[in-house]
From TrEMBL:
InterPro entries: EmrE-like (IPR037185), Small_drug/metabolite_transptr (IPR000390), Small_multidrug_res (IPR045324). One of its GO terms (molecular function) is transmembrane transporter activity. It comes from Gimesia chilikensis. SUPFAM superfamilies: Multidrug resistance efflux transporter EmrE (SSF103481). The chain crosses the membrane at residues 29-50, 59-78, 84-104. Keywords: Cell membrane, Membrane, Transmembrane, Transmembrane helix, Transport. It is a multi-pass membrane protein. This is Guanidinium exporter.
Length: 105
């Protein structure tokens, strides 16, 4: 169950990272409220997950999924560049996250 909680926390991390773009520097009320809410929920769920999962593994997986999801979503939503090097680096992140998951005790 801790891994499911960690995954949900990471999805919320993607949400708040992308949400920051919509807050316009936290000057827009509702996007800011939603982004801050996702930040709080993501951190709370991360804290729950690392009660069982080693903190180093949990944090690395959380940030890895968050970075991957944010990069992919930002390319679609904001037209950020998609290059071979960015793609290769994202593949490396996926490998790292999978490796941590498979090696976790």
């Amino acid at each position: 169950m801790a891994w499911v909680i960690l995954f949900v926390a990471a999805v919320l991390e993607i949400g708040w990272a992308v949400g920051m773009k919509y807050t316009d520097g936290f000057t827009r009320l509702w996007p800011s409220v939603l982004t801050i809410g996702m930040m709080a929920a993501s951190m709370f769920l991360l804290a729950l997950a690392v009660r069982t999962i080693p903190v180093g593994t949990g944090y690395a997986v959380w940030t890895g999924i968050g970075a991957l999801g944010t990069a992919v979503l930002s390319a679609f939503l904001f037209g950020e560049p998609v290059t071979i090097w960015r793609g290769l680096c994202l593949v490396l992140i996926v490998g790292g996250v999978l490796g941590l998951k498979l090696s976790a005790s």
